[in-house]
Design brief:
476 residues; alpha/beta; UDP-N-acetylmuramoyl-L-alanine:D-glutamate ligase; Protein-Tyrosine Phosphatase, Chain A; 3 domains; ten-stranded mixed sheet; six-stranded mixed sheet; 21 strands
């Protein structure tokens, strides 16, 4: 997508949009935008082909959901919103342009909703959703009532979008399609930079240049927050500071502005001691395991402190943080098998998630059901993905989920399965969704941990696994 064709933030407001129709309203990103607009009082409709869990909540908020894609869905609509996943020849998109309706990319509609707010935009290869969620919860605990759109639902609250009365707007900034370049943040958070979406950026140098351009869009009186430990952001820090921009860093590095020490991760969560510019802040706890989760929380902690949020509000928010759906989410237990769901699909996040789940499994085995996300990523990062999956005891690989992509012979799930460094009896390629629960039942035993991992559709598999495990246990 060419971002030059997109409308920069500030030229539209949410009220300018009129009645809004979202193509693919059930997706996490589109669903969050729909929820935001509905809570702002904007009439919203959308179309879907699958009954995603979020749709019931959108209907309860007054949204209209059509379970089909037809031209008549656009009757009475002023603005049509699409995402990068929607092809240019989609029936509703073509019809919207034929009728002369306003057509916006999701990022443009989101930018319109940011008007008159100080935006905290969270970017990075890994950790965006968790960091955005923690930042939102901190502001909520501080009584700020932020507006937000998150690429995942905050657990228990079941929300990934809201129009608040406070001064801040917290949002994920997506680099995959360059759409983060239309935002004008007051605070830009860059969690890390690692090779991904290179089909769009060309190479790592191009991706880094994109992140620098994003950071340079920050308000002159705002600031950038990034990780001192991450090799990918070092050039960014140097370049921004050379321009006279304010950059704050966090991490375990000695030179980090917010320095983490004594980081300990266990099944009960991660904790660390922190010091800001050498001044001790005490111990900070997050009820989610994983050192990477500690770094995600530190990004939000540093940002909140620089915005003047009291430390006590920050620590209280972290101790109460319930987690994010699809980020180390426990779906349930059946037949003595614990089932989790995790969004990780990039090799680095796959490795981090599986190391953490290994802690959780204890004496039990770790079984992974992995649905690769995007053909180009699975092909280009096959060796690294296979290395990550090899951390599990057993692996079930599904076919690649890559809407609109063409999979060449020899690419995809079969090749990835072959590359996993496990014996043939401990790995298997299962292309049919319906066959996966049977395979999990056959391979699992009490005490094991099973995690569904990867592309968005796999999030629907956990409940099916629990049902199959329950039924098999009953029949024994």
């Amino acid at each position: 997508m060419n971002t030059a064709e997109l409308t920069p933030a500030g030229e539209l407001t949410a009220e300018d949009l009129g009645s809004v129709h979202l193509i693919g309203i059930g997706g996490v990103g589109m669903g969050g935008l729909a929820r935001l607009l509905l809570t702002r009082g904007v009439p919203v409709s959308g179309s879907e082909l699958r009954e995603w869990p979020a749709l019931a909540a959108l209907r309860a908020l007054g949204g209209t959901v059509h379970m089909s894609h037809t031209a008549s869905n656009l009757d009475g609509v002023d603005t049509v919103v699409y995402s990068t996943a929607i092809p240019a020849d989609h029936l509703e998109l073509v019809e919207a342009r034929r009728r002369g309706l306003r057509v916006l990319h999701r990022s443009e509609a989101l930018a319109a909703a940011m008007t008159n707010r100080q935006t905290i935009a969270v970017a990075g290869t890994h950790g965006k959703t968790t960091t955005t969620s923690i930042m939102t919860v901190i502001l909520q605990h501080a009584g700020q009532d932020p507006s937000f759109v998150i690429g995942g639902e905050i657990s228990e609250a079941g929300s990934n979008g809201h129009h608040g009365t406070g001064p801040y707007f917290v949002a994920e900034a997506d680099e995959s399609d360059r759409s983060f370049l239309i935002y004008r943040p007051h605070v830009a958070i860059v969690t890390n930079i690692e090779g991904d979406h290179l089909n769009n950026w060309g190479d790592l140098a191009g991706l880094k240049a994109g992140f620098q351009q994003f950071a340079e869009l920050t308000d002159a009186d705002g600031f950038v927050v990034t990780c001192a430990d991450d090799p990918g952001v070092q050039d960014l820090i140097v370049a921004l500071r050379a321009q006279g921009r304010t950059v704050y860093t966090y991490g375990e590095s000695e030179w980090a502005d917010l320095r983490l020490d004594d980081v300990v991760s266990s099944v009960s969560g991660v904790r660390y001691t922190a010091a800001l510019h050498g001044e001790a802040l005490g111990e900070i706890k997050l009820a989610l395991p994983g050192r990477h989760m500690g770094l995600n929380s530190a990004a939000a902690v540093l940002t909140a402190l620089k915005l003047g949020i009291p430390l006590v509000s920050i620590t209280e928010a972290l101790s109460a943080f319930p987690g994010v759906r699809r980020r180390f989410e426990r779906k349930g237990i059946a037949a003595g098998v614990r089932v989790y769901d995790e969004y990780a699909y990039h090799p680095t996040s796959v490795k981090a998630a599986l190391r953490t789940l290994r802690e959780v499994a204890g004496d039990g085995r770790l079984l992974v059901v992995f649905q690769p996300y995007r053909v180009y990523r699975t092909r280009d990062l096959q060796a690294e993905l296979a290395e990550g999956l090899s951390l599990a005891d057993e692996v079930i690989v599904m076919e690649v989920f890559g809407p609109g992509e063409v999979r060449e012979p020899g690419e995809g799930g079969v090749a990835l399965t072959a590359a996993v460094a496990l014996t043939d009896d401990r790995k298997v390629f299962v292309p049919s969704w319906e066959d996966v629960p049977t395979e999990v039942v056959r391979r699992s035993r009490p005490g094991d941990v099973v995690v569904t991992m990867g592309a968005p559709p796999i999030s629907l598999m956990g409940d099916e696994l629990l049902a199959a495990l329950t039924e098999a246990d009953r029949d024994r």
